[in-house]
Amino acid sequence: MKVAIDRAMDLVRGIWLHRRMAVMVAWVVALVAWLAILAWPDSYQANARVYVDTSTALRPLLQGLAVEQDIEARMNIVREQILGADKLDRVALDAGFYSEAAPQQEKTAVQNSIRDRILIDMTLPTSARRDRAPTADRIFAISYDNTDRSKAIAVVDALLKALVDDTKVSTTSGTNDAQSFLQDQIKDYENRLAAAETRLATFKKQNVGLVPGQNQGDFFSRLQTEITEGKRAETALELATRRRAELQRQLRSEQPFAVGAAAANGIATGRSAPGSNDTASRIAETQARLDELLLRFTDKHPDVVSTRQALIELRARQQQELEAFRRGDAAAIASSGLAANPVYQSIQVQLNQTDVEIAALRGQLVDHQRAEADLKRLLNTAPAVEAEFARLARDYDVNRAQYTSLLERLEKAKLSDNASETGMANFDIIEKPNAASQPTSPKRPLLLLVSLMFALGAGLGSAWLMTQLRPVFTNSAALTEVTGVPVFGVVSATMTSESQRRSRLRLLKLGGAVAGLFIVFLVVFLTHQSGSRLIHSLLSA
After folding, report:
1. Which parts of 436-509 are beta strand (E)?
2. Could you tell me which of 193, 201, 198 has the C-alpha nearest to residue 396?
3. Which of 513, 425, 477, 432 is nearest to 62 (CA)?
4. Are 297 and 416 in the same domain?
5. What's the CATH number where 419 sits?
6. Is 146 helix (H, G, I), strand (E, B) or coil?
7. Same domain, yes or no, for 9 and 130?
């Protein structure tokens, strides 16, 4: 620690030996810096702020009906556009930076200078930042600095007008361009749609019966349907045929006629009903008499033989009457004394119904088989027809969908155009273009103070540099450390009264020089505005 302190003291002593150089360097650096700061041109910053409100009354009403206009995106584009060469040329001419006759090189240099000094910032309103709610509202801040206050204000005013006007013009021109593009596309797709409709109609006419939709389903589904229905009809026909065979068997086991009620009564009592003269009654009566004779006589008795012969004749007669009835003679059944068998008639009705059903099923089966055969003959043609039809229909649907979509977009664009004329965004100027009467830069008080500190540091640095270039040993220990030679003694300097007086005088001069530096700094600090104007007038003279 002691070594470090000793070295620090040696450094201070060395700097002190070169104190006059340190003061001179500080004066030179300070004067040069103060003159440069006072000669630094004043810069005036003009500012303007505009509030862009996109939450107009039309916005919620047009939600989903009109094309959404991205005001923020348009303003970003306009912000880039107004920094272009054309816009800056107009701004420079309006602000008087140059004339129309100025050379292009000068114009380009001025435009680049203006562009470098322009700042356009976009921020959210304070309420939106506080509530953290999504909003399209923005505050645009425009600033520009120039040595001429009036030119700075003129530039900001021109930029503000360009921002507002170009945004509105961009909206209108963009909507008009969109409508023109959509109208051209609609005409194109209208022609495509008409051509697709013509091709589809012609194809349908040329392939009647093969186009899906005219007959339900596509080709393979129709073929499968006919095969399935044919098998179903074949199965039903087989069942109906079996049912008819069973009915025919039952019908053969039944007699179509049965003994009537009167004849049956006569058979039961052994005598015919009064007034009955039908064959069946007579057979019943003869049979009863034959049975009675057989109880009394033998078979060879003349009465038995004659009665038996009469019975045979009656039965033959009854058989003839049945044959006559089958041929359509209705009177024959009445004379025979027989009645229709109801069981036989019921079976016959069912058999007739089954015959009708079989005939219908055979017709259906033939129709399905014929349709199946027709479809199988088209097996190599129909799929290609259906594929071509699907392609034409798909082309038609795509064109129709695109055409409909373009029509909807055109209507939205027209509605958006009307809405933009009414106002989809409001521009409220919060702060008109203005600049403070005092220059915003340079910050001379701060620069003057910094320059004083720098001058003092430069003086101390120069003294330290001299100690390194021309070292001086202030004690024997330092000399021994550097040379490595031991010091046996030190001779002290004796100051006479005259030497002491001259030393004090030098100290007073040094203190006066340092004090003068601070006094000059104080004067320059307090009068920097007038001093700057004086220097500017001298430089411009």
Report:
1. none
2. 193
3. 425
4. no
5. 3.30.1890
6. strand
7. no
Rounded CA separation 417/175 (Å): 6
| Residue after which a domain boundary falls, among 311, 340, 369 | 340
Backbone angles phi, psi at 43, to 5 degrees: -125, 130
Strand, helix or coil for residue 424 = coil
CA distance linking residue 139 with residue 126, whole number of Å: 10
Listed in sequence order, the residues at least 6 apart from 200 whose beta carbon sits closer than 8 Å to its beta carbon are: 389, 392, 393, 396
How many other β-carbons are positioned within 10 Å of the β-carbon of residue 117? Answer: 15
Give the residue carrying structure tokens 């006919």. Answer: 226
47, containing H or E segment: strand 44-53
Residue 99 inside a domain? The answer is: yes
Task: Give 425's DSSP letter.
Answer: -
Using an 8 Å Cβ cutoff, are 244 and 358 in contact? yes
Indicate whether 48 and 183 sit together in one domain.
Answer: yes
Return the number of other C-beta atoms located less than 10 Å from residue 314's C-beta: 19
Q: Are residue 413 and residue 480 in the same domain, yes or no?
A: no
Question: Helical H runs in 253-301?
Answer: 261-269, 279-296
Strands 44-53 and 138-146: antiparallel
**How confident is the model at residue 443, as a pLDDT?**
87
Indicate whether 315 and 180 sit together in one domain: no
In tens, the pLDDT along 88-133 reads 888 888 888 888 888 888 888 888 888 888 888 877 666 544 445 4
How many angstroms from the chain centroid is the CA of residue 93? 46
d(CA 132, CA 520) in angstroms, rounded, equals 54
The reply to whether 207 falls in a domain is no
Tokens of 142: 């425009």
- Tell me if 443 sits within 8 A of 457, measured CB to CB: no
Q: Could you give the strand order of the β-sheet that contains 44-53, starting from the edge strand earlier in sequence?
A: 118-123, 138-146, 44-53, 426-435
Task: State the Cα–Cα distance between residues 225 and 416, nearest whole angstrom.
Answer: 54
Q: Are 389 and 17 contacting, i.e. CB atoms less than 8 angstroms apart?
A: no
Question: How many beta carbons lie within 10 A of that of residue 263, not counting itself?
Answer: 25
Count Cβ atoms within 10 A of the Cβ of residue 530 and give its class: 0-12 exposed, 13-18 middle, 19 or more buried.
Answer: exposed
- Classify residue 234: in a domain, yes or no: no
Instruction: Give the 3-state secondary structure percentages of the chain, helix then strand then coil, rounded to 5.
Output: 70, 10, 20
Would you state the pLDDT for residue 287? 87
Determine if the peptide bond prior to 433 is cis (ω within 30°): no
Residues in CB range of 339: below 8 A, 6 or more apart:
257, 258, 259, 260, 261, 333
Token pair of 11 as six digits: 């450094």
Amino acid code (one letter) for 294: L
Tokens representing 50 are: 């505009």
Do the Cβ atoms of 93 and 100 come closer than 8 Å? Answer: yes
Structural domain count of the chain: 3
Tokens representing 445 are 């008080």
**Spatial contact of 147 and 43, defined as CB atoms under 8 Å apart:** yes
Q: Look at residue 144 and give its three-state secondary structure.
A: strand
Strand ranges, E, within 374-523: 426-435
395 occurs within a structural domain: no
Domain residues for 333?
257-340
For the stretch 367-411, pLDDT in tens is 888 877 776 766 666 667 777 777 888 888 888 888 888 888 777
Q: pTM for the whole thing?
A: 0.42
